[in-house]
Amino acid sequence: MSEQERNTLYELMGGAETVRRIVEAFYPRVLKNPLLAPLFPSNIEPVMDKQYMFLSQFFGGPTLYSDVHGHPMMRGRHMPFPITVERADAWLGCMAGAMEEVGLPQDLREFLLQRLKGSAYHFVNTPEEE
Which UniProt keywords apply (predicted)? Predict the structure, then answer.
């Protein structure tokens, strides 16, 4: 393993196994969240696989998502869904809970969530509902 590989967020968080555990802890939270659940299909497995691939790549691991699906273009891929600030907050809350559940240290969780906030709020495409 090269020096660069050892210093990625992906490696710091525990690599593939930890990313998979985060995804598996994250989606039950999403499916229980009344703001988020309606946005997801009943068969969540393909979504979980894509999230695993994306987060692996996003945090500096292998380019799994791009290798299979091309450039992430995540804002465009999320445009069909009404993403509000409230939903972005709920998504981040579910992710925070998942990271805590899998035992990531608080300082690492906070750093990873800070990285994810930029993306979560970049996907906002709908004003808050009245």
Answer: Heme, Iron, Metal-binding, Transport
Farthest CA pair distance, the chain? 52
Per-residue pLDDT of 83-127, as tens digits, reads: 999 999 999 999 999 999 999 999 999 999 999 999 999 999 999
pLDDT tens, residue by residue, 29-66:
999 999 999 999 989 999 999 999 999 999 999 999 99
How far is it, in rounded angstroms, from Cα 69 to Cα 92?
A: 24
The helix (H) or strand (E) run that includes residue 48 is helix 45-58
Q: Where are the domains of the chain?
A: 3-122
Tell me how far apart the alpha carbons of residues 127 and 84 are, in angstroms, rounded to a whole number: 6
72 with 123: CB under 8 angstroms? no
Contacts of 3 (CB under 8 A, 6+ apart): none
Give the predicted TM-score (pTM) of the model.
Answer: 0.89
